[in-house]
Amino acid sequence: MAGTLPVQISFTLPDGWQAAPPDEVGAPGVAFVALHLASIDQGFTANITIAGRMRNDAATMREIADESVRRLREAGPVQVVKKEEIGTPDIPGLTDAPGVIQNLRFRTTLRGEPLELCQSQVYLGLEDVNSPSKRAVVELVLTATEDQLPDLVDDFKAFLRTVRPPGGEAAG
Q1: Residue 10 lies in a domain
Q2: What digits encode the pLDDT tens for the residues 43-92?
């Protein structure tokens, strides 16, 4: 079943990306999926997903990103290629909301065949102004094969620059 976001956000998809129902494309639990149909490689369609949940714990954004790595490791080896706090030269505008970006490589199977995938994950923490102990964590993820990634990483950066939290300026 498709998930919902704990906060409203707005965004614009770059040209060539098409929204798809999460349940129909095998992405239960996420609130939004966009596919890049022109980039199919080894039977895999590159995608952007958006998910989120409320958190009322003291976990840092780095720790929340680590949770994703642990979940992926349950299925097999995961290599963390890069991890950094948001506000890098690549995505300077994301400093409005605390966050982390991490790039991963991992192996999975597609139709019974092994497949190596890359993910660029961005985690944004948006505090509840009425209750600072509560915060929404929004996860924005690009998943692609190694061959697809060079052609699509700039699209993902462009997408991130359009993400807007509730009543806010662009997050990136």
Answers
A1: no
A2: 899 999 999 999 888 888 899 999 999 998 988 889 999 988 875 444 44
Distances (CA, A) of 55 to 13, 82, 108, 152: 27, 24, 29, 31
Indicate whether 35 belongs to any domain.
Answer: yes
Q: What is the CATH number of the domain that holds 46?
A: 3.40.1000.10
Dig out the tokens for 77 from the structure.
């080896």
Nearest to 47 by CA among 132, 146, 156: 156
The structure's pTM equals 0.86
Question: How far is it, in rounded angstroms, from Cα 172 to Cα 158?
Answer: 8
Q: What is the pLDDT of residues 97-151, one digit of tens each?
A: 668 889 999 988 888 888 899 999 999 888 767 776 778 899 999 999 999 999 9
| CA 20/CA 27 separation, integer angstroms | 10
